[in-house]
């Protein structure tokens, strides 16, 4: 099952005044400019006080980036959006902009590694965190403390694909006046709309499905207008992880084809996952829609093309050998493009272990657009 309205993208892309602004261009042109001249000094002073909405200097606002922000805000049903040079830029600005010494963050789910590394760095500045893999309210409630300011969730996660009870978490957080954020990268803005469930902030790495062509890095932070404005001045403008106008253009271009790409990624991933689930060399498949990990949450319109599986011979050496035998799957990090990719658990550096929850014999696949038959045949020969 995959259920979304492909018209959603077109409506959101055409919203706003871009057509009038850009002489009818279907995609807004690239405003390759670092600064914007004003007619008078008075106008310049006025615009400097509202840099979050008016193009004055491109470290603040740029017309092409603004067009992407407007589109993503509409797609996510958010009041406001700010785009960044990468997903980590957006996550960094959220944490720096929102938290102060003494605050705590509760991380829920299968959190992206660098996000946790950033949280560890923040300990040096007096911002502490707690963590749980379980995404249900019963597991989360006892971990909330007086100082908890933010619940940060990843659902579905991007290695083991666990799903959290988002409406339940949002309701619990509201009761305690705690803010909530969700990294929605795996689901894309088409398959899950967290704002409609009461989540306060949504994060995207545009680098993945939104771009979709493995050629641009970007991130987005969405939320209430007042809060995004504060984060704009308190973190974004000061940290400087700015999205380039050309990249904003590529993401708008990517969004146009997201509905068709997503349907294909979804269907082919499900075919490949079902094949693997029936293979004797495979012990487990982590694909949230196969019903092996969890039931489909009510807020969710289907899964994209990313999933993982564990070998029955669960060693890292065997997982690496299988990955090396794959011909169609690129050995690479990241995901969301036209080419299929594979990655095993790995050690980033001698001091940091593979997170213990990730089984040694795990392979994660990003299913591209080569067609399910060719991908199944490739896995067949690699597992033989
Ligand atoms: C890739 C990714 C990020 C980070 O995004 P970048 O654009 O690489 O900085 C954050 N969260 C998830 C789930 C990701 O997959």
UniProtKB/TrEMBL annotation:
InterPro entries: Cys/Met-Metab_PyrdxlP-dep_enz (IPR000277), Cys_met_metab_PP (IPR054542), PyrdxlP-dep_Trfase (IPR015424), PyrdxlP-dep_Trfase_major (IPR015421), PyrdxlP-dep_Trfase_small (IPR015422). Its cofactor is pyridoxal 5'-phosphate. SUPFAM superfamilies: PLP-dependent transferases (SSF53383). Keywords: Aminotransferase, Pyridoxal phosphate, Transferase. The keyword Metal-binding does not apply. Transmembrane segments: none annotated. The keyword Methyltransferase does not apply. One of its GO terms (molecular function) is transaminase activity. Belongs to the trans-sulfuration enzymes family. This is PLP-dependent aspartate aminotransferase family protein. It comes from Qipengyuania spongiae. The lineage of its organism: Bacteria, Pseudomonadati, Pseudomonadota, Alphaproteobacteria, Sphingomonadales.
């Amino acid at each position: 099952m995959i259920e979304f309205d492909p018209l959603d993208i077109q409506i959101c892309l055409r919203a706003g005044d871009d057509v009038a602004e850009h002489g009818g261009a279907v995609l807004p042109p690239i405003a390759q400019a670092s600064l914007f001249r004003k007619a008078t000094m008075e106008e310049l002073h006025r615009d400097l006080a509202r840099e979050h909405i008016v193009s004055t200097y491109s470290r603040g606002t740029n017309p092409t980036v603004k067009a992407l922000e407007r589109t993503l805000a509409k797609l996510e049903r958010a009041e406001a959006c700010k785009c960044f040079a990468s997903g980590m830029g957006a996550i960094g600005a959220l944490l720096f902009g929102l938290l102060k010494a003494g605050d705590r963050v509760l991380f829920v789910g299968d959190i992206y590694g660098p996000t946790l590394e950033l949280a560890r760095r923040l300990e040096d500045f007096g911002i502490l965190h707690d963590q749980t893999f379980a995404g249900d309210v019963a597991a989360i409630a006892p971990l909330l403390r007086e100082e908890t300011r933010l619940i940060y969730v990843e659902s579905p996660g991007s290695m083991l694909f666990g799903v959290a009870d988002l409406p339940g978490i949002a309701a619990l957080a509201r009761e305690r006046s705690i803010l909530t954020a969700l990294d929605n990268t795996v689901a894309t803005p088409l398959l899950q709309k967290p704002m409609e469930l009461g989540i306060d902030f949504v994060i995207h790495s545009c680098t993945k499905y939104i771009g979709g062509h493995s050629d641009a890095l970007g991130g987005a932070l969405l939320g209430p207008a007042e809060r995004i404005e504060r984060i704009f001045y308190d973190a974004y403008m000061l940290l400087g992880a700015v999205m380039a106008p050309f990249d904003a253009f590529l993401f708008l271009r990517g969004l146009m084809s997201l509905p068709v790409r997503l349907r294909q990624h979804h269907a082919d991933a499900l075919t490949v996952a079902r094949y693997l689930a029936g293979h004797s060399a495979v012990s487990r498949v982590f694909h949230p829609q196969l019903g092996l990990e969890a039931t489909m949450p009510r807020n969710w319109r289907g899964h994209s093309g990313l999933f993982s599986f564990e070998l029955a011979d669960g060693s890292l050496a065997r997982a690496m050998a299988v990955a090396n035998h794959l011909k169609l799957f690129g050995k690479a990090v990241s995901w969301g493009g036209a080419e299929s990719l594979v990655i095993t658990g790995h050690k980033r550096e001698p001091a940091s272990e593979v997170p213990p929850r990730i089984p040694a014999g795990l392979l994660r696949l990003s299913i591209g657009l080569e067609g399910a038959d060719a991908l199944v045949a490739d896995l067949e020969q690699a597992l033989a």
